[in-house]
Design a protein that fits this description.
Elements lengths: L1 H51 L23 E7 L4 E7 L5 H14 L3 E4 L4 E7 L3 E8 L1 H74 L9 H29 L4 H4 L2 E4 H18 L3 E6 L4 E4 L1 H18 L5 E8 L3 E8 L6 H6 L12 H4 L5 H11 L3 E7 L3 E9 L3
Parallel strand pairs: 7-9
Antiparallel strand pairs: 1-2, 1-5, 3-4, 4-5, 6-8, 9-10, 10-12, 11-12
């Protein structure tokens, strides 16, 4: 799919570029054709004027001749006719013309019935000017004109080809750059679907196995089958939790989280964190974890109360799970430079730098062997990151032997 998108991107981009190039070069070529035609007509006018002044010994050149220019002279000749259209004189400039040829050319110009034009069969441009004595007709060889147009056309084609090649290379580079986020999102979506399917498959398999056991012991009472019913109930609860977490992430990605759950209001973040700590004291005690806290009072925030409570719960739950037996979890909340900084530190196994880069990815778990035992799906920290970003904050992790594993959330204080 990404390859098709890249191909369409390049095709559309090149179509626009080629169209613009053709339009620009066509206008440029047409304007230069008109300029060359005007120069040719100026040569004819100059030739007639010089003939009037009897200056035929001066050479007439095609347009202005810059110093050092080796451009050849444009062959020009002027035919003077009297009132009965007979040839009076032929004044030549860099060209040999017989009277017979001149008569043929005059006849062709009379058949055209125009005061100026082109004799294509002879590659001559002509101009008629009436005088008191009769008429003067100037003829100019179009060889130099055609050579100029041919050189102009070749240059335009070269510019077109070079520009197309350069823009094609640029389009290839831009297509990769522009579609890189889409490619990453596509891979993440496929991975997300695969992981979600895998996680849903496990409880469904267990539920189906339990139901099969129940159906094979139809004569037993519900009390006798209570073990399988409780197991099924637990798997349903876990699957419900997974679906709710997936739904939250999907709505967050689509920016369609229900308004009731995202309504921002002024709140005391210190109370939210303290209530979370008090809630986890019993859990920490059961896990033989020492839970400590240092919470600065009266830190105001403007946000969604339920989401911020969920954020605190996720971090505390994660800390208590992985602090290790007889470990410790420390919660600190301070004001730092117009931000509320929440730090949840825990002992236990450290997180490697490679794992730190991926720890906020969906379904990623550093300890896959204990994942199911701990009841997690690897979505908690991803949800925590989503909540922090929804409140225009940031979440980060660090892990070292000196400090243990520290999750830090910074949220902007209301202005």
């Amino acid at each position: 799919m990404i390859k098709r998108l890249r191909g369409k991107f390049i095709l559309i981009n090149m179509a626009f570029v080629v169209s613009i190039l053709i339009a620009v070069l066509a206008i440029f070529y047409y304007s230069n054709v008109r300029r060359i035609e005007r120069l040719s007509e100026m040569v004819l006018i100059q030739a007639i004027d010089r003939d009037r002044l009897n200056l035929s010994h001066n050479r007439v050149i095609f347009g202005p001749r810059p110093r050092g220019d080796s451009t050849p002279f444009t062959p020009v000749f002027v035919v003077t006719l009297n009132q009965d259209h007979s040839i009076v004189s032929i004044r030549k400039n860099n060209i040999t013309v017989t009277e017979e040829l001149a008569q043929t050319l005059i006849r062709l110009t009379e058949e055209d019935g125009l005061s100026r034009g082109v004799l294509k069969d002879y590659s001559l441009r002509y101009l008629k000017v009436k005088t008191l004595e009769g008429m003067k007709i100037a003829f100019a060889d179009q060889s130099y004109e055609w050579n100029s147009l041919k050189a102009l056309l070749v240059n335009c084609l070269l510019v077109f080809l070079v520009a197309v090649i350069l823009f094609l290379i640029l389009s290839l580079f831009l297509s990769r750059l522009a579609l890189k986020p889409a490619e990453i999102a596509w891979k993440q979506q496929n991975q997300f679907i695969a992981d979600a399917s895998h996680e849903l498959k496990t409880p469904l398999t267990v539920i189906l196995a339990n139901l099969q056991i129940l159906s094979s012991h139809k004569d037993q009472t519900i009390r006798d089958q209570e073990k399988w019913l409780d197991n099924t109930k637990e798997e349903v609860r876990r699957m419900k939790q997974l679906v709710e977490e997936l739904l939250f992430l999907a709505r967050s990605d689509a920016k369609t989280v229900q308004a009731d759950h995202t309504k921002k209001e002024p709140l005391d973040f210190s109370d939210t964190v303290l209530n979370g700590v008090l809630l986890f004291e019993s859990i920490a005690f059961e896990n033989k974890v020492n839970l400590k806290h240092d919470i600065e009072p009266d830190i105001p925030l403007e946000g969604c109360r339920d989401q911020l409570k969920q954020l605190v719960t996720i971090l505390l739950d994660n800390g208590c799970k992985y602090a290790g037996k007889n470990g410790s979890v420390s919660v600190e909340l301070k004001k730092v430079s117009h931000h509320a900084a929440l730090k949840v530190q825990n002992t236990g196994e450290l997180i490697s730098p490679e794992e730190q880069k991926r720890i906020f990815e969906r379904f990623y778990r550093t300890d896959k062997s204990r994942a199911r035992k701990s009841g997690g799906y690897g979505l908690g920290l991803s949800i925590a990151k989503t909540i922090a970003e929804h409140h225009k904050g940031k979440i980060s992790v660090s892990s070292s032997p000196e400090t243990g594993t520290v999750f830090t959330v910074t949220l902007p204080l209301p202005s």
